[in-house]
Amino acid sequence: MPRNSREITAEDIMGLEDYEQIRAEKREENLLRKRFRRIAVGPHVTVYFESWDTMWLQVQEMLRIEKGGEEQLVDELQAYNPMIPDGDELTCTLMFEIEDPGRRDALLHQLGGVIDHIHLVIDSEKIGAMPEQDVDRESDSGKASSVLFLHFPFTAEQKAKFRDPANRLFFQIDHPAYGHAAIIGEEMRNELAKDFA
Hints:
Layout: H1 16-34, E1 38-41, E2 45-49, H2 52-66, H3 69-80, E3 89-96, H4 101-110, E4 118-122, E5 125-128, E6 130-131, E7 147-153, H5 156-163, E8 169-175, E9 178-183, H6 186-193
Helix pairs in contact: 1-2, 2-3
């Protein structure tokens, strides 16, 4: 399975019986990979940086659960391929995680426009988040979605700065209702740098 491919095709997808035989192994691989692709930002946000491998597993799992065959596969590829980094970006799924529904709802109602306050910061340079297209990220009342699908586009110069360990690197949310940042360490930086062409 080509890690540096930018698209999952029908040929990459295994039949359900074949997938079942390697499922435990692939899920274990994914857990190990997520160690270097997951970061907590404050007490209520977890960020998962996506890749070809994470999206491949997601497609396989959706097909396994729903058993929708080729028709479902077309929909899954349309849904998950856009979240595979294209070589000039990082992509992530950001989740606001609060178990208590009332508290979660209250926070999400305070977080209108939060996407404009999410950045990757290299030294003092901010790279702003761009939302995945065709995904609702805020209700008409201004309530933020608890799950956001984000892209961070990089220039060639920014990619070089990202790779340079001399530059401080962190994930920042600077919304008035949720202001937190988390340092991206060396192991995560090295893993995420693989997403660039």
